[in-house]
Amino acid sequence: MSWLAAVALGDRDYTVRTAYRVSRGNRIAFLAFTFWLLFSLAVVGALGAGAFFAQQSLPQPWVKLVAWVVIAGLVWLALLIVHSVPAALYRVFR
After folding, report:
1. Distance from the CA of 46 to the CA of which of 2, 35, 38, 39 falls in 20 to 30 A?
2. Domain tally for the chain?
3. Quick check: 89 and 5 in contact, CB under 8 A?
4. Is 51 exposed, middle or buried (0-12, 13-18, 19+ CB in 10 A)?
5. Segments forming the whole domain that contains residue 54
6. Which of 33, 31, 29, 7 lies closest to 18, judged by CA?
7. Structure confidence by residue, pLDDT tens digits, 31-61
């Protein structure tokens, strides 16, 4: 994934082979990082599901608007988390 940030920055010297070579030997760190990434996304998903089911169960019309605003904010947060991963890996391994 660190190669994706290099492509976005136009770093032609940082190839897929280079990314694999510099990140080799970090399996435990990647496993721990993946756990925390999935945990963070699961928390965001649970909050979004709670907002969705709250607007389904309450009859007031303003609850639907608030729930969709909360869900949109959580989607934005999840995208921010997922898109920061390649940048962080590129910064660490470059």
Report:
1. 2
2. 1
3. yes
4. buried
5. 2-93
6. 7
7. 888 898 899 999 999 999 999 999 999 888 8
